[in-house]
Amino acid sequence: MRIRPARTDEAAALTELVLRSKAHWGYGVEFLEACRAQLTIRPDDIRRRRVVVAEDADSGVVGVASLEGTAPEGSLGLCFVEPAAIGRGVGRALYFHVTRAARELGFARLTIEADPNAEPFYRRLGARPVGRTAFGSLAGRELPLLEVRLPPRTEGWTQAWTAGRRAVHLGNVAGFQSQFGPVSPQAAHYACLAAFLSPYPAVLILPAAVPPDWTDLIGRSLGWGPVEVYDGLTEPPGPPDGQADCRTARVIRPAPEAQGDRLTRAVLSRPALLRRLDSLDLPLLPWGRTPAVAELTGVPLDPEALRYESKRASHELFTRLAPAHPEVRVPDQWQPATRRDAARLLRMRARAGLTTVVKTEHGAGGSGTVVIRDQGPGGLSRLRRSPLPRGPVLLEEFVAGVTEPRDVTFDGLVDADGRVHVVGVAVMDVLGTAYRGATVGPGVVPSALAESVARFGAAVGERIAASGHRGWFDVDFVTGSDGRPAPTEINLRMTGPSVAFMIKARLDETRGGDHLVRSVDHVPLGARLPGPALSAFLRETTARCAGIDAVLLPSIPTAAFAPAPYLGIVLAAHTRERLDAAEALVRAAARDTGRVFTT
After folding, report:
1. pTM
2. What is the spatial distance between Cα 174 and Cα 268, in angstroms, rounded to a whole number?
3. Within 13 Å and on the Cβ side, how many CA atoms surround 357?
4. Cβ-count burial of 303 within 10 angstroms (0-12 exposed, 13-18 middle, 19+ buried)?
5. Distance from the first to the final alpha carbon of the chain
6. How far apart are CA 106 and CA 255, in angstroms?
7. What digits encode the pLDDT tens for the residues 464-476?
8. How many other CB atoms sit within 10 Å of the CB of residue 252?
């Protein structure tokens, strides 16, 4: 399906399409004839009302829409779909096309005079009810009036990231991790987040097999066109044994990830895939930069580019920047020469009643981090039983505090010319030391805290750009009892919060408004779901979320048939209440998947 400007010679045929679409709701002939004058499209309307059509290669024209008025305020005047094509995403595609065009033309607000039967459709796409309006054709009849708020078009970070173009997404999570140590067993699942490396992908390349309808389900909500998916590239022939084969009910266990960027090497070994990517001439976005990515893209990897992925090096950078940023507090860090020295220092601090954070130099999502708390009498014996991370460790002052939000993160990017672009500040959901998700959007982070974090994060960006880093980065913070943020680490790659920022950018652009977006990386399932059952569950739960004006996007579907099954999800809404309600709905539905086996 493609969307193109309508032609003047199509006016009469489009009028009949509109009337057939209206009749779909059960209106009688007399009512439709009373509406005909108002719903008629004349040849001179085509250009004046900015009429577009959706055209299917097999069925011809299957929908029509119009963008009417003069910026900054206008209306979605028409949005009608051929009855036989209803349910195929035509209406969504037209809606997204019109709102994108309106934003490009400088519209800030669109109104919609909706048929009562279509009101739920528009509300699911983000339009808000603002009242009722008279229906011109029939005296005494009123229609729901809705509005769509469109954020201004900017040349901000989304333009710097992909120049407004679609992109090729490479889920080399394991390949990036392997540069610094052992690869997490969950890396193949987490690689699914690569679907959101930009707001609008064209190609997705993944190590493990994913459900065949997964990107279609996401794309319906985000207004994507077709996405080419190349999955299972690091799996052995046939379904690998150990993670979920999403197309069947088989359980598969992949062999441990070998060192090196196996996914990118798999792309490099496939001439046909390389030719396809070259023919698209689109930006290629990896989860993280590696020597293999440098070979694939032709962009060299500076030897110092990933220096500050080290928690030791990042703390040294924080300390150098601190004098210029009194609103930020840098916790003390000690770098013991041996594990014995580390244990000795821990005992000394425990005797003094002090809490200490033990870190490995590299680690993602809280892995390799342990908090040794002051536990009063007997604390030293418990300390001896506490497992420390493997290898050399760093000890860091624990920043105490109950101020909310406790865990925040700054996301930014360094463009190809070394310029730093601020993306935003998010609140992270952290349990102990384990990252579980993030929330972004209006009011999530108090303005004073967000400004302090953003200033320091931008200063970090300038330094890492000078060291050769190009691409995404984030800086994590904890908030102390005095309300000051304390930086804890730098990540020179895509992150969980970056997913929320990408989805917010896409939803704000296509649906209007200022969305709240929450990523939740681990929602336990009550039962293991094979492919067909997973698809049915996701479709049903997505519809239920839409019923409360929230958007559900499955972000990690591949663990649904793992031995301990779970899903990763992203939720979006215009209010905190709807966002919380949607999360509660999804968690309850996920638990209920086990009832069929217990009743």
Report:
1. 0.80
2. 16
3. 21
4. exposed
5. 45
6. 53
7. 999 999 999 999 9
8. 19
